[in-house]
Hints:
Distance between the termini: 39 Å
Largest sheet: 10 strands, antiparallel
Number of domains: 1
Oligomer: single chain
Shape: globular
Radius of gyration: 19 Å
Order of helices and strands: HHHEEEEHHHEEEHHEEEHH
Number of strands: 10
CATH class: Mainly Beta
Strand content: 15-25%
Amino acid sequence: MTKSPVPHSTPVCVPCRLAAIGAVVLALAGGFAYTAGWLTSARLTAPRLIDTFEKVAGKPHPGFRRNHAKGLCVSGYFDSNGDGAVLSHAAVFTVGRTPVTGRFAVPGGNPSAPDTSVPVRSMALLFQLNNGEQWRTGMNSTPVFAVHTPEQFYRQLLASQPDPATGKPDPAKIKAFYAANPETQPFRAWVQAHPPSSSLANAAYYGINAFRFTDATGTTRAVRWAMVPETPYAPITDAQKSAKNFLQADLDQRLQNGPLRWHLILTVAQPGDPTDDATLQWPDNRQHIDAGTLVLEQTSSQEDGACRDVNFDPTVLPAGISPSDDPLLAARSAAYALSYKRRTREEALHPELHRTQTSGDRS
C-alpha cells in the first residue's frame, strides 16, 4: 500500500468574479427522486433542471451538452499498481492496464466560450474494464462543490440566468444567493485562494462526491478520489488570460513530447466524515492510497472523437464501487441522461450539425 501527498495540496483554481463563480456550479446537478420526477409535480425534475441550464446558456446550442459544452476528447489507459485492491475488488484495481476514453471540458453551456470564462475545468473518464464492466467519472478542478442539496442547486441556476438587459448574470442575484446559503463558503474560499493552472495537464481533478468501496472480504469504506498530475503546477500567464482557446493547443503541444500522467489518489474516510455533503472536505490526515497512473496519449476533436457519444454518468460503476448517500449523485445521473437524449436527438434530426460545428467545440 502506497501513501501519497494530500491531493488538494496542488493548486488548480483561481480568484474570480461572482458571476464566474456562479457559472462553475453548472458542472453538477442534484437529487435522484427529485430530478427523476418520481415524487410530486412540485419537486425538481430532470426536464426542469435541463430547461434552466438552457436558459443560463443564453441561446440554443443544438447538438451540444447542456453543460461542459466546450471540450475535447482524449484517450489512453490506466496502469493499476494493485494497491487500490485493499479498498475495492473492482477489476480496475487489478494489476495491469485498462483502456480509457476521456474528455476535458470547460463548465457552461456555450461551446464558444473563452477558456477563461470560468476558473474551473473538468476531466471525465470512461474506464473499459476487461470483464466488460465500465467505470465512468466526471471530475472538477476543485475539491468541493458549491452546494449541498438539489434545492440549492436549482436556486443557484436561477440566480445565474442572464439578465435580459446585459446578457450576463446579475452579480447582485448571485451575491444574494451566496448570502442566503452559507454552505457555499468552502467552495468560494477555495476558488479565491487557488489560481488556475496554465494547462489542463498540470491541474488536479477531484471526484468531489463520496463513493462506497467494497473489498474482497465484504468490508465497505467511504472513499473520495482525485487525479493528481505529474506535470508540475504553474499558474495561468497574462498572455493566456487574454486568449480564447489556449487549453487545447497547449495540450496538443505537450502530447507531442510524450504521454501525460496523473496519479489516482484514493482518500479513505474515517467515522464521522460527511459522505452526503459535497461542500465539505475531509481532514488532511486521512489515509491516501496511490492506486496507479492515468496515462493520456492523444487528443481528438469532439466532432468525431470517441468521447462524443459518451454520457459520463458518475453512477455507472463496476462491482466493488457504489454510490454514497450524497443526494447530488443520482441527480447528476438523471440530468446527464436527459441532456444526452436531447443532444443526440438534435443530431439525428439535423445531420448537418456534424459538419458545421468547429473542432474543439463539438459535444
